[in-house]
Design brief:
The chain has 210 residues and is mostly helical. The chain is 61% helix and 2% strand. It has ten helices and two strands, in the order αββααααααααα. β1 and β2 form a beta hairpin.
């Protein structure tokens, strides 16, 4: 009985793997048993939303953004609101941020539909709940103003460090212009309490100064 259960689970994993390969082939990341240039870039992205990141870079929906705007948009791919936090998010910046956020959601919707066709469900929906905080912090705003009355310092640091990790990855795989902006965003985010909490980084300011 145990052997049958193991075989059943193994077969399920194999079927899911085949469906993932079919999806990646359809999207141009695989060509038979060969990993395409798009696929090699995807291999260097480590996040639950890896395919969404790759597709956004491929379609150029993040081109032309400045560092705080890219930080805000990228934050939607790492942040996840708790069920008791489901309120209308405060969106930052000008129309270019709103446009990039809208286009990112459109890319996600197309990928989500493609996943459903292949009976998959991996990609989380972009969550803009941290976008305002990411934009303000990357712009140099003081910590107390970024946190306000709703965001705990520990949560802020945790999400910011995850965002920095994603932007670091983007800076390694994006086109030259977006790569430069991603590195600027990392520099803007890695300061104050965020840098202080990272044992691998040297703080640029004291935590109190934010």
């Amino acid at each position: 009985q145990l052997t049958r259960r193991i075989e059943g689970r193994t077969n399920t994993i194999a079927r899911v793997f085949d469906r993932v390969c079919d999806l990646l082939t359809e999207r141009g990341y695989l060509a038979g048993d060969t990993v395409t240039p798009q696929g090699r870039r995807l291999k260097r992205i480590y996040t639950e939303a890896d395919l969404l990141v790759a597709e956004c870079l491929q379609s150029g929906v993040w081109k032309g953004l400045d560092a705080p705007s890219l930080a805000a948009v990228a934050s939607t791919l790492v942040y996840s609101s708790r069920t008791d936090e489901r309120v209308a998010p405060r969106l930052p910046g000008g129309p270019e941020v709103g446009h990039a956020l809208t286009e990112t959601v459109h890319v996600w919707a197309r990928l989500s539909a493609a996943e459903q066709e292949h009976r998959l469900d991996f990609l989380p929906e972009p969550d803009p709940g941290f976008a305002w905080a990411a934009y303000q912090w990357c712009s140099g705003t003081r910590l107390d103003r970024v946190l306000g009355d709703t965001l705990a310092a520990g949560d802020f640091v945790r999400w910011t460090r995850q965002l920095i990790d994603l932007l670091d990855q983007i800076s390694n795989v994006a086109d030259p212009a977006t790569r430069t902006v991603a590195r600027r965003a990392v520099a803007g985010l890695r300061r104050g309490v965020v840098a202080y909490s990272d044992s691998s980084a040297t703080p640029t300011t004291t935590p109190a100064a934010g």
